[in-house]
Amino acid sequence: MASSKKWASIISSIASCVYFLVIILQVPLFRVPCTAGICRTPIEVTSSQLIACELFPLVVVKALLYPGAFANALIKNRPIPSYDSLKLYNFTNVKAADAISELQRLEVLAGSYLSVAGALLGLIKPGRMSLCGMLLIVWGLVREIILRKSTSTIHVYIYPAMSIALFSAFLSITKDVRRIIRSCRLGIIGGLSVNSTLNFLRNLVNWSSRDGESCPPFVLCSDPALNKELLLIERPSFPYVSRKNEGTELDPTLIVENLRSKRIYLENSGSRCIVMPCHISHSWHDQISEGCSVPFLHMGECVAKELKEAKLKPLEAGSPLQIGVLATYATLKAGFYQEKLRNEGFEVVLPDKATMEHTVIPAFEALNRKDTEGAQNLLRIAVQVLLVRAANAVILASDDLRDLLPPDDPLLKKCIDPMNALAWSTIKWVQSAKEGT
């Protein structure tokens, strides 16, 4: 699948060819009085002016006019005129331009020059000349109609084909087309938990709308089959799975390929930034993001930077800042949270074996039994254990743990949700992208 840059180039090339054909084949775009009588195309306006001013020989003017005469003959089923005997336009009757009338239609004249030149140069390197020319013509015609400067206003008219010329002139500008394709659109790769992905989207929409801004457009790519495979990676973390699975590891190669293909799809669909609100999927973030041409936010980096910006103070003078991490065995084993925190200068406090076996894993088991109160109490104990070990804050790096404690629980003030950090980082990226920084 082509990248956004390639798509922009393809669209621009096609639009340039369409615009060239509209101009060179002299599709009627408007009707306006000119030195040759009534002109209906930019080439007619340009040619009549060139003849009246005698700046170029008639051979050059005929070269511009002949493709239109050829096309006109085919459409009307007339004999095709020869180049030498071309009499589609009465060159001998072209009058010298009246200064006052030409000044009144200066925009149409200048726009016609730019339109014709833009059509020819656009085949080599598309630019803004064509669009500027068309806009000048439209402005001149509209002004002529509104102000009724012409003695015979009925002769001034804009044909529907003008919209085709305008649209193709705009799309011929590669940079502008690419900006449209790659507007501040977010690409979101759904993960293990559908609820977690929806919570992330809810926060993204609500928080980005706080200052009156609208939520940035996004493309969500989620796969229920992939969710099941990710769950199998995490399940060995839970004792309620058969002990037969202990010591066996599932091959994540297919999962990584699946996630990478989703990243490539989002990238090629025009996403300017990609996020992945899933803890376990970040175990392979480096492999998934390899070769990515747009920012691919890492949840571990987002939460580490948020803690860095919070300017926490150590519990004891001279001691390092310590951050606790509560998660499943699979997430802790991947080690990406530990790595990103250490990169920002934090020391990491992890639950020991006893804490995992007697509080963290039983909390997951209680949730599996729908025992929410029991799971809450076990989680409180696990958080307290890490805080007692001098952790300044505790990261709840699990979809099951993030919403377990009630909103008024005082322990939540010491807990950090990586999903929230990812949402805030995404909003900041969108704001900076809009500002062009």
From TrEMBL:
Q: Does Transmembrane show up as a keyword for this record?
A: yes
Gene3D superfamilies per the UniProt record, alphabetical? 3.40.50.1860
So where does this one cross the membrane? 7-27, 113-142, 154-173
Cite the GO molecular-function annotations of the record.
amino-acid racemase activity
Domain of life, per UniProt, equals: Eukaryota
Pfam families, per the entry: Asp_Glu_race (PF01177)
Which InterPro entries does this entry report, sorted A to Z? Answer: Asp/Glu/hydantoin_racemase (IPR015942), Asp/Glu_race (IPR001920)
What's in the keyword line of the UniProt record? Isomerase, Membrane, Transmembrane, Transmembrane helix
From the Swiss-Prot or TrEMBL record, give the protein name: Asp/Glu racemase
